[in-house]
Each structure stands twice: as C-alpha cells, then as structure tokens.
Specification:
- The chain is an all-alpha fold.
- It is built from ten helices and no strands.
- About 30% of the residues are buried.
Length: about 200
C-alpha cells in the first residue's frame, strides 16, 4: 500500500474502533451490530469487514489499542529495585490513565455474564503481557541476589494492585474521581517504597 492509502486505512480503522467502543457501551456487545458500527463510523460495511471480519476481531482491536505499548515495555536492568519498580509503576499508571481504558473495563464487566470470552481476551491481550514484564523483572532481581522474592507472581500482583486500586478502580464507580499528576507520582512512589521495604535484600 502507498503511504497515502496506509494513512487513510489507519484513519478509518480509528473511526471504526471509536464507534464500536461507544456502541458497545450504549447498546451492549450483543446488540451492537457491525452494520450499525459502520454507519456510526461513517464507513462502508465493505470497509469495516475488510479490516474486521467479525465482532470478536473488532473487540480484540479495542483491547490492543487500549493497552498499546504495554507489552513493549522493556524489563529494567537489575541491581536497583527502587529504580526498576519506579519505571514499571509509572508506565503502568500511564496505561491505566488512558481515556479509553475505563470504557474498555466497563464493556468487559457489563458483558461478563453473557460473553466471558471478552474478559479472557482482555486479560490475555491486555493486562497479562504487562504483568509478565513486572514478574520477569522481579525474577531477574531475585536471581541476581538483589531481591528476596519467593513468589514473583504474587509480588507482581501486589505491586500493580497498589497502583490500580487508587488510580483506576475508583474511576469505575466514583463519579468525578480524578487524580492529579502529582498524586499519580505519589501513589507510584508509595507502592515502590512498600515493595522495597518488603523485598529488597539490601534492606
């Protein structure tokens, strides 16, 4: 494809994903037809089907777009648990703060009873890759002898939970919940200090 056609295709893809997200929220995953999504996006049904042959493929795209960059996070160098966890924590906070993230979780939660596969896709393609980055880093610190982490999976869950429980989950249920950039930094730093106090071998 030429650069121009690639740009047009990307623009149409973005319109489709945005329209699908809104209709999944308004109508539910089941009732939001691909034809209606194409209409709301202002594209032909042929264009939509060319990029997303099924509704499941379209939902996959919403998940991938929401978490884009999460699975590309590099595992920090070992030797400084505070620095490594700070890097990972701030990246995670940035992912959770993206505008479409709350909408994605609302879709998954609303459709969980009828479409549990959406939650599985969300976890497998969304959070799990970033979770594995944190776990891999903790394993590396343990193997280097700089951290005493008997259960890296539990430790990664604890770390990400401390961040998301303040920065993200209240946004789903508390109207008007906002967090200043300064507070984001403070929440991540507090989570890091807690982890270092618990797991840093030097401490």
């Amino acid at each position: 494809m030429t650069t121009y056609h690639q740009r047009v295709a990307q623009q149409k893809r973005a319109l489709i994903v945005r329209a699908a997200t809104q209709l999944f929220l308004e109508l539910g995953y089941d009732r939001a037809s691909l034809a209606r999504i194409a209409e709301e996006a202002g594209v032909s049904k042929a264009t939509l089907f060319k990029q997303f042959p099924t509704k499941a493929a379209l939902f996959d795209a919403i998940v991938i777009d929401s978490w884009a960059g999460g699975d590309d996070a590099e595992v920090p160098s070992v030797g400084d648990l505070t620095a490594g966890l700070t890097t990972l924590g701030r990246h995670y906070a940035a992912l959770l703060g993206r505008p479409g993230m709350v909408d994605l979780f609302r879709i998954v939660i609303a459709e969980l009873p009828r479409f549990p596969e959406l939650a599985k896709v969300h976890f497998a393609e969304g959070k799990l890759p970033y979770f594995e980055t944190v776990r891999t880093y903790l394993v590396a610190e343990r193997d280097a002898g700089t951290a005493d982490v008997a259960d890296p999976r539990m430790a990664a869950t604890q770390f990400l939970g401390m961040i998301s429980n303040y920065l993200f989950w209240p946004r789903l249920v508390v109207p008007g919940w906002t967090v200043t950039p300064e507070r984001v930094v403070a929440v991540v730093d507090d989570a890091v200090r807690t982890m270092v106090a618990r797991y840093d071998r030097a401490g």
